[in-house]
Amino acid sequence: MSDISINITWWDLLVFSPVLGWPGAIAGGLLGARLWRKRPILGGAIGALIGNLALFAARFFTM
Questions:
Q1: How many whole angstroms from its chain centre is CA 56?
Q2: How far is the C-alpha of 20 from the C-alpha of 42, rounded, in Å?
Q3: In angstroms, how far is the first alpha carbon of the chain from the final one?
Q4: pLDDT under 70 in the chain at which residues?
């Protein structure tokens, strides 16, 4: 038997998310900036975060 365990915390997943979710960040940023015309920078930032996390979750849970 082995006493080795792998513990992955939520912080580790957030740090690793740009590796798998970068296309979602680009698409979400462009879409967010385009849809929120009054505040395109904020819309792009929020869209990039949501797109990154959504694509990362999709790729992570289908592995």
A1: 5
A2: 23
A3: 26
A4: 1
